[in-house]
Amino acid sequence: MRTTTGVARNRSKNRLFKRAKGYRGGRSKLTRTVKETLLRSGAYAFRDRRRKKREFRRLWIIRISAAVQLHDLRYSEFIHGLKLANLELDRKTLSQMAILDPEGFKGVCDRVKEAIASAASA
Question: In degrees, to the nearest 5, what angle opens at C-alpha 55 toward C-alphas 49 and 57?
């Protein structure tokens, strides 16, 4: 009796097709194309999980910079002042604060200005 790979091959193809569900045309119907597409999509997903972190950090910095300019500070001065004032707020929190709680953010800016002034006089 000869052995065939029918069941194993079909099962492995079904797994691939399940992962490629929703892709257009041959990318969801042709085995070789599906394999190539899944490889590439996995590479993009891996890359973009890291890229996402960078993009969000850039967005937070832009938002903080815009909010800080309203209080007559520069972003770099503000971050330096945060360290001088021993305020351990991350950029995500500061960005949210600038949008949702402008009064609280103004308080942080005031503390930062005081810290910068006391450091300059010392």
Answer: 110
- The C-alpha atoms of residue 11 and residue 21 are separated, in whole angstroms, by 15
CATH topology of domain 6-121: c-terminal domain of poly(a) binding protein (1.10.1900)
Contact status, residue 34 vs residue 28, Cβ threshold 8 Å: yes
pTM above 0.85, yes or no: no
Compute the average pLDDT of residues 91-103.
Answer: 96
Query: pLDDT tens digit string along 2-18?
Result: 777 889 899 999 999 99
Around Cβ 7, how many Cβ atoms within 10 Å?
8
| Residue ranges with strand state E in 63-122 | none
Phi-psi region of 25 (alpha: psi -120 to 50; beta: other; left: phi over 0): left
